[in-house]
Amino acid sequence: MPAGWVLLHTPAARPLIMPLFEEHPQRRALNDEVHSRPPVPLNTPEFVSYLAFLHIDGSADLEPAHLHQLAAQLGLPEPSTDTGHVSLDTGEFRVRWERHSEFSSYTFFRVGDGAEPALQAVPAEWRKGIPGQLIVATQVEVRDADDVPPETVIAQEGHEFIPTVASQIASGAGWVLTDFRIVEGFSRFVVFNRSLTPRQAGRSVQRLVEIETYRIMALLAFPVAKDVGRLLARAEGELADLMDNMGNSTSTDDERHVLNRLTRLAAEVERSVARTTFRFGAAAAYYQLVRQRIEDLREVRLDGYPPIREFMDRRLAPAIATCATMARRQEDLSGRIARNSQLLRTRVDIEIERQNQELLAQMNRRAKLQLRLQETVEGLSVVAITYYASQLVQYLAKGGKDYLAPATPEVITAVSIPIIAGLVALGLRRMRRQLAAEEAVPSH
Predict the structure, then answer these.
(1) Which of 53, 150, 211, 358 gives a 20 to 30 Å CA spacing to 165?
(2) Looking at residue 1, what is its pLDDT?
């Protein structure tokens, strides 16, 4: 042991007592997460059947009861499904269930040299009732390289299985053969164990079925990408036509019509973005997992056969690149529609502002005309008020002519006319000034 190291759990060491710290409620769950779902050690020979079911119409909620049914049928204790993974050992076979975000997997293990796959040992009625929609079905055979030399299988000497993909794995400790084809409902892998430990064999098989699963899950985005491609081709052409119409528009009504069509197109593209963003993002994540699992296999190339890495680079990578391209085109088209819509709205707003300015100018001219008319009416009002007031003065003068002599009523009336007119004019002017002053004071 290097100097300075202390072994805490030796008999001579004092036990380490955990003080009563306040513990985070998720501490143990987070710590145990890195130890969950370990690979199942595999003996040689052993047969593995792997099934993956997509969650549809609430099928994930039915899985715990279905697993409890299997345990009861086999006389096993009821398993806990809260952790998202369950392992059962029936003696004749083992089963491992794992729940993922979009699918659940069932892996069945059976030791022996028999020709029947591991799935045949599972009760038929139970396996037929597994909830969900089958997306992956794979058979894996783990054989001893000394009993069945992999060179003879590769040379296709007396074997019905003709591999098209082959490589050594774990730096030469094992071989893997496959063709990535579905025959009688299952794809197939054959793993030859030359010097793999049971845990190495378990890890290798787990990586192979994960490669198969994540490959299919990644390809779920490929049909979506094709549909999006057709939508983008049509939408891009329509956007180009709308931009031509916008350049040729001669009135606000034309621009509003283009804006309405552009808004409908934007809604259609945004609806497509909302529906496909998750699928494209999931495809990229699944593809990254495929590449990581292939890296973990540590493949060694065999002459005349492509390894799994090369097969995926040639067949899977273009499909994922297509999905990524469609996702980028869709986002780019959404951005272009948004920019063009903003440009068109700006043009419409400018035109509306221009019309508003013309309307305000017309209102201003009308206000001036009304002011002039009002001033004319005020002049006539001065004349009218002066006339009626002078008549009153005349009646008063006639009534008191005996007291006003030698002034006659006519003279008094004539003298009162300019005085009355001046007073009325001054009164109206003062009234206008008061109204103008009230309008100039801001309201609170």
Answers:
(1) 53
(2) 47
